[in-house]
Design goal:
CATH superfamily of the largest domain in chain B: DhaL domain
Helix content of chain A: 25-40%
Number of strands of chain A: 13
Oligomer: heterodimer
CATH topology of the largest domain in chain A: Rossmann fold
Distance between the termini of chain A: 27 Å
Radius of gyration of chain A: 18 Å
Strand content of chain B: 15-25%
Number of domains of chain B: 4
Number of helices of chain B: 19
CATH architecture of the largest domain in chain A: 3-Layer(aba) Sandwich
Structural class of chain A: alpha/beta
Distance between the termini of chain B: 67 Å
Strand order of the largest sheet of chain A: 10-9-8-13-11-12
Largest sheet of chain A: 6 strands, mixed
Chain lengths: ~280, ~525
């Protein structure tokens, strides 16, 4: 049986992880001298509360090769094969660590995939893999299925400020949005594995309007989640707003954890989805 | 002696005459603003366009009329600025088409070419309005055609054109209510009349002082001084004649201007001088002898262009570039902060030429360009650019800076040129623009009585309030605007707004729109102490 490994930036809720037997390897967030495992020792909500109180800038680090080796070994020992679907290699060394761990394990029963994504877009790819695995597909079939969906995965979001992306060195081409003298709300996406600019809005309300328009422009979807970092109430309103356009589609929430939150800053909100 | 043939030399000389005569009359044309706002310098725009036409043929010693007409048409197009300049350039283009490949024409051929000029100008304007320059050029052509059929004299034909133009100019207030209310004739039409008179002066050697001005009451000359007086105009020309008084000329030129250089002999004197009043110097010089190589450059415009270009970072290739027009250092920085690749300085009272825009479009590191004119009087100029470049250019017809900024905010990095052009076009309607400036003369517009020196408020280009102070005007315009739905209000303080008053304006806007976010920005624009965007 094939099992799925992913990392904590996939924003997969705990119950879904369990229901689909998905193994999640956490990245780490460092605040001062303390180290927390992403979404294990520290939840997104707790993190954003801390962030509001502290002037210290948190840092993040990828999982160790050993952490992946451990996860793989446990599954292999149980007789499973492994498809690891991991955070975009353009913004993190996580994929590299997962790949090195697979080589170190010297097993042909592991496939490692660079999702080029983050948050629930990565989570959806992992879930698709888990469903294919549950349907009894082979290692190659599961990996091919996930790879075939990579071009259909999307994340679009607005953030309050570009400061966090800039300070964390993950701003990528969204650098183009920096430098506005007017107070603007940046719209960003992940494309080709890196942060890219989508546009600018004059207010949060206008930014949400734009996100909804961009979402609807993409036509019918197979999966959709509202992504947010410590903005649950707003995310719920956003879900209610778009739900009528997607009858029959379950719209979940992707609550951003401490690692992604370190780079987006508080108040990130948007959509993550797979095109039909 | 009748002139029976118009060739390249005659057209070239006539152009010089037109430039000289329009230079002398420029301020009078400028003063014919319909709105009492310091805006739309029709005379200046037409003169700069005409000068560009003349410069394009100044190096040609050419008898072939078709070549001179082609050069002049190209020059006019490249130098065209403002709506009046663009229409003038289209008249040249049509004239050039009418000449075709003929090396010379008779009076009938000349009149026919003028008629073609009128036809092309009509086609260039999306909604042709009677009582404007278009009517005047059509009537001028009609007058020329009927006289040419009778007399066969080129100068008489041009005289008929000028006379018909004058009659048409006098009728413009009957055709356009807005002119009648303001008590003026149409500025562009009058400018065209002056150009035709200039042709005639050169051809007939006639004393133009005897050409009567339209009977209609002209506006009084503007009371508000043009900004940036410090730079003035670089004025150059050559006086030709016999037994010229070089020393007297030098003394007079030095008295009237700065950085004067006067060299020559009894047959030709070359003059280079910096002055705020080029018309006065040219008028003096034209009394001494015949002028040639006349050139008047606005040094403020040159200065701004150079200052703007010096700070550009190294260009990076990108999918789509944005070129925008703006007045003021603050607005330049704001636009660049919103991703504009090239800001062409211009706007109120200083419209950029087609060439200025074309140069910026050619210079940006992309083959696809979105062009934002950001001023009602630059839209038509901008719309000429796409046909002049191999790049794909989409003009988003923004009529104010807030509209341009709203358009920039609609820019989608993931969309193509056409999609962005149309999204940005739709965004223009999502912002209301309030502009505050000072009335340059008494007037009554749409029932609002305005006194010279009043602070006046415009809502989306329409005058709606006149008061004694900017805050009072803004309150009145806000009343007019209503209270619904404003989310973001941005106050752009102009170069003349001062330090304290803008804060007062922000407080009163906040009191009026407690739900909205109000932002104060230094726009640095000339002539308009406040531009306010309501979104």
């Amino acid at each position: 049986m094939v099992r799925i490994v992913t990392d904590s930036t996939a924003d997969i809720p705990r119950d879904v992880q369990r229901a689909f037997d998905i193994t999640v390897v956490p990245l780490n967030v460092h605040i001062g001298d303390e180290v927390f495992r992403d979404r294990v020792d520290l939840s997104g909500d707790d993190f954003f509360q801390r962030l509001a109180r502290t002037t210290q800038l948190p840092r993040t680090s990828q999982p160790s090769v050993g952490a992946f080796q451990e996860a793989y070994s446990r599954l292999l020992e149980q007789g499973h094969e492994v498809v690891a679907v991991l955070l975009s290699s353009k913004v993190s060394g996580t994929y590299n660590a997962g790949l090195m761990a697979a080589q170190a394990t010297a097993s042909d029963r592991i496939e490692v995939i660079d999702s080029q994504m983050a948050s629930m877009a990565l989570g959806f790819l992992a879930l698709e893999g888990a469903e294919a695995a549950r349907a009894g597909r082979s290692l190659k079939e599961v990996a091919d299925h996930v790879r075939s969906l990579l071009p259909k995965a999307r994340v679009i979001a607005t953030i309050d400020t570009l400061t966090y992306l800039q300070r964390g060195g993950r701003i990528g081409r969204a650098q183009a949005l920096v430098g506005s003298l007017l107070n603007i709300k940046p719209l960003i996406t992940l494309k080709d594995g890196e942060v890219q600019p989508l546009g600018r809005a004059r207010s949060r309300a206008q930014a949400l309007d734009r996100l909804v328009a961009l979402l609807e422009r993409d036509g019918s979807l197979s999966r959709l989640a509202v992504l947010h970092g410590g903005a649950r109430a707003e995310a719920e309103r956003l879900r209610e707003r778009v739900a009528p356009h997607y009858p029959g589609l379950e719209i979940s929430f992707a609550e951003t954890g401490p690692v992604l939150g370190t780079h987006t800053g508080p108040g990130v909100i948007g959509f993550t989805y797979l095109l039909a | 002696m009748p002139i029976t043939v118009c060739d390249g030399h005659l057209l070239k000389d006539s152009l010089a005459g037109a430039v000289a005569w329009l230079t002398v009359n420029r301020e009078e044309v400028d003063a014919l603003n319909v709105f009492p706002v310091p805006d739309g310098d029709t005379g200046t725009n037409m003169l700069l366009t005409l000068q560009s036409a003349m410069e394009a043929v100044s190096g040609l010693d050419e008898a072939d009329l078709s070549l001179v007409a082609k050069g002049a048409a190209h020059g006019a197009l490249m130098g065209a600025r403002g709506n009046s300049g663009v229409i003038l350039s289209q008249i040249f283009r049509g004239f050039c088409t009418g000449i075709g490949s003929q090396p010379a024409v008779d009076a009938t051929g000349l009149a026919a070419a003028l008629a073609e000029g009128a036809a092309v100008a009509y086609r260039a304007v999306i909604k042709p309005t009677e009582g404007t320059m278009l009517t005047v050029v059509r009537e001028a052509a009609r007058g020329a055609q009927s006289r040419a059929a009778q007399s066969g004299d080129v100068a008489e034909t041009v005289r008929a054109a000028a006379e018909a133009a004058r009659a048409a100019v006098e009728r413009t207030p009957e055709q356009l209510e807005i002119l009648r209310d303001a008590g003026v004739v149409d500025a562009g039409g009058f400018g065209l009349q002056v150009i035709l008179e200039g042709f005639l002066k050169q051809m007939s050697g006639e004393d133009l002082a005897r050409l009567s001005r339209p009977a209609t009451q002209h506006a009084r000359p503007r009371a508000v001084a043009a900004p940036e007086q410090g730079w003035g105009y670089c004025t150059e020309f050559i006086i030709n004649g016999d037994d010229l008084p070089l020393d007297d000329v030098r003394r007079e030129i030095v008295r009237q201007g700065q950085s004067a250089m006067v060299v020559g002999d009894e047959t030709a004197i070359k003059v280079h001088v910096h002055t705020h009043e080029p018309a006065a110097i040219i008028s003096y010089a034209s009394g001494i002898g015949t002028l040639s190589r006349l050139k008047v450059d606005d040094m403020s415009a040159q200065h701004h262009r150079l200052a703007g270009e010096a700070e550009k970072p190294a260009p990076q290739a990108k999918a789509q570039a944005v070129v925008a027009v703006a007045s003021g250092e603050g607005f330049r920085r704001i636009l660049e902060g919103l991703g504009v690749d090239a800001v062409v300085q211009g706007g109120q009272g200083m419209n950029p030429s087609i060439q200025d825009l074309l140069r910026a479009v050619e210079a940006v590191p992309s083959n696809e360009v979105l062009l934002l004119p950001n001023n009602a009087n630059v839209v038509l100029t901008a719309e000429q650019v796409p046909s002049l470049t191999s790049k794909r250019v989409h003009v988003v017809p923004s009529r104010t800076l807030p509209q341009g900024i709203a358009a920039l905010l609609a820019f989608d990095f993931s969309a193509g040129l056409e999609a962005n052009g149309s999204a940005m076009g739709s965004a223009l309607g999502q912002v209301r623009t309030i502009e505050v400036t000072q009335a340059i003369r008494d007037s009554e517009v749409h029932g609002t009585r305005v006194k010279e020196g009043d602070v006046i408020g415009l809502l989306d280009d329409e005058l709606v309030a006149a008061e004694s102070s900017a805050p009072r005007v803004i309150e009145k315009v806000l009343d007019r605007l209503g209270r619904d739905g404003a989310q973001t209000i941005t106050v752009y303080a102009g170069a003349e707004a001062g330090d304290e008053e803008p804060k007062q304006v922000v407080r009163l806007v906040e009191a009026r729109f407690p739900q909205a976010t109000v932002e104060l920005q230094a726009g640095g624009q000339a002539l308009y102490p406040y531009i306010i965007a309501v979104e």
